[in-house]
Design goal:
The structure is a homodimer. Chain A is of the alpha/beta class and about 210 residues long. Chain A contains eleven helices and six strands. A six-stranded mixed beta sheet of chain A has the order 1-6-5-4-2-3, with helices on both faces. In chain A, strand 4, helix 9 and strand 5 form a beta-alpha-beta unit. The longest helix of chain A has 15 residues. The interface between A and B is large, with 47 and 47 residues.
Chain lengths: ~210, ~210
């Protein structure tokens, strides 16, 4: 078995070179402003479908970066997404990551109303008095909850990263988010995940700092 | 947009039904003993490639379940994988999850030797005096480190879940693990991830408890 000798600090650079090679001419069809996000999602999944699946509203990558620069907090729907986001870098801009999914009050409220904890955790997040980025990698019901909060005027997020994964209402929830007036980065179709949500946040973070 | 009305507690069941439908006749070609793991990985990724990619050594699913039942600890290479594993369920059997990647002594040692923190974190884990399950979803260098520890007699894990994702030595590191005498569950090829590593652990955990 041939092991390529690559220094630890060069592994990511070499990975990105390989991704660029494999993308080949396809890269010319992708918007250069979004390329750092598309590549990082492929880096985190080894799944080139994301070159086709990822959809960006106008200037979404720039809006995401500016929101971070301006100190926005990030709200996730899973501890895993929270865990994957580079929180030390986010803190440099004054932002922090919230995930309310495991909160007792969220669980109690969800049980009472017969809805998901994910949905209730979005309602709790909407009460945060800060500019917010939502990074949703798991629950379509979180996206549907965001849509209701937006429509009722209770929430105006800076941008929604809508990349839940799965089989029940996942495709539909993403299309619904793309029809709001809120900036979005969405992985169209069934694919996505907490890792993808975190990768998109990190892609934006890494354009803002020297690593 | 048509939203399917599914109660929160039924979403996972409905997802698994849809996965079974999509797998179709393919399901007959898969070993029934591994099916709960294959389906849960597809559930976490929406990526049906895993029906082909996942490779199991003899009785791997049973060995993993037995290790958990016997109180084995799980070692991950990322905080994200640790975050995704159902730790409350693991605790019922006396196990806990370790991840040493962010430890200061690991970082210092990695810098000194010019190797990855992932590799050093495996050496630290090998010193745990308990039956160990390794769940590696990110770093091929963690797998290569495990191989060295096994060959030198410093480690004899119960099973290795080898599902790193990426482009530099990822394919090769998995093949190397499959050539050891240690039981394995490996996602052959470039694909995998911390989410996949956690999903495999959770699939085993969920066969052992009523949820």
């Amino acid at each position: 078995m041939n092991i390529e000798i690559v220094k630890p600090m060069d592994i990511e650079k070499r990975s990105m070179e390989i991704i660029t090679e494999i993308l080949g001419d396809k890269i010319k069809t992708l918007d250069e402003k979004n390329l750092h996000i598309i590549k990082r999602v492929i880096h985190t999944s080894a799944d080139f479908d994301y070159a086709d699946n990822l959809c960006f509203s106008d200037n979404a990558a720039e809006i995401l970066a500016n929101a971070i620069k301006n100190g926005a907090d990030i709200v996730t729907d899973t501890q895993m997404a929270k865990s994957g986001i580079n929180k030390a870098t986010l803190e440099k801009f004054g932002g922090e990551v919230h995930c309310f999914i495991a909160d007792e009050d969220v669980a109690a409220e969800a049980k009472k109303r017969g809805i998901t904890r994910s949905a209730v955790s979005m309602e709790k997040a909407a009460k945060l008095n800060k500019p917010l980025i939502f990074a949703i990698g798991n629950a379509p019901t979180a996206l549907l909850s965001l849509k209701e909060l937006i429509d009722s005027g209770k929430l105006k997020p800076e941008i929604i990263i809508g990349v839940p994964v799965g089989f029940v209402n996942v495709v539909e929830s993403k299309e619904i988010i793309m029809e709001t007036h809120i900036p979005y980065i969405v992985a169209r179709g069934r694919k996505g995940g907490s890792n993808v949500a975190a990768a998109i946040c990190n892609a934006a973070l890494y354009t803002l700092v020297q690593r």
